Every structure is written in C-alpha cells, then in structure tokens.
Amino acid sequence: MCPERAALPELSIRTRAVIVQDGHVLMDRTHHTDRAMFYWLPGGGVEPGETTEEALRRELMEEAALEIHVGRVLYLSENLFVESGDYRHELILYRLARIVGGPHGEPSDPRMHEWHRPGEQPGPLLPADMARELAFDIADGFRRPIVHLVTDERPSWRP
Prior knowledge:
159 residues; eight-stranded mixed β-sheet; 3 helices; disordered N terminus
C-alpha cells in the first residue's frame, strides 16, 4: 500500500434495524469480553450488489433466525473513528423494521440480542447521537424525515 493511502480509513457500508415492541428496542450486546459492555442495533454489512433491505433481512435471519419486514430509512449515520488501532469510516442506514416470523431454527451466526427501553440498557447504545435520536423518535412516533448524523472522532494524524 502506498504511504498516502496507509492513513486512509477503512470504509464500510452497514445497515441496522430499528425494531420496537412495547417501547423496547431489540439491541445487540457486544460479544467482546475484553471491552466494556455496549450495545448497537442488529444488522451488519451490506454486500456488493445487495440492497440495504436485503442485507437487513439476511443479517437478522443469520443472527437471530428472525424474519423481518423492512420499512423506511430513519437515520443516515456517518462515523469516523479509531477502534482497536484501526481507523474506520462507516456509513450506516438505520431502517424501521418489524418481526413477522421466527425464530426459524437456530441462527447461523448467533448474537446476544436483548430487549431494552433506550437508556435503560446496562451499557451505552452506540453511536450516542443515534441513541438520542432513537429515544426522541420512539416518544414522537417516528414522524420526522430522515435524520443525518455525523460522529467525527478522526485521529489527529489523519490525512
């Protein structure tokens, strides 16, 4: 890799499901035992040639054996950060979703899913700006248009 590119972040496109039932949100608890507990919403990477809707349906089936209906985009989140020494740039589309079936057998890539009211989970829901917006939108009934969020924690040595 040329030196100019070595300092560029790794770019990923992700999608996450906002699944709410009775004020509780389906959250994915970190499985890293070497880190403090934190949560994010279920979902994952979008593969080339796959829509975010297809990716979400695939990820929830792989991780929880759940069949979901995928609704509209709620948030576009851009995150620039360093994690475990790796410089990352994520674009995440958060989409409203609901469970329509399952679980169907055992998940092929099981995760630690838990239901919590936002703000009542034992560790932070990340990214923090999305967690704030989610709490607002649950109370408001998800009436707003798409919200664009940016978390910029780029390192000082960035290009």
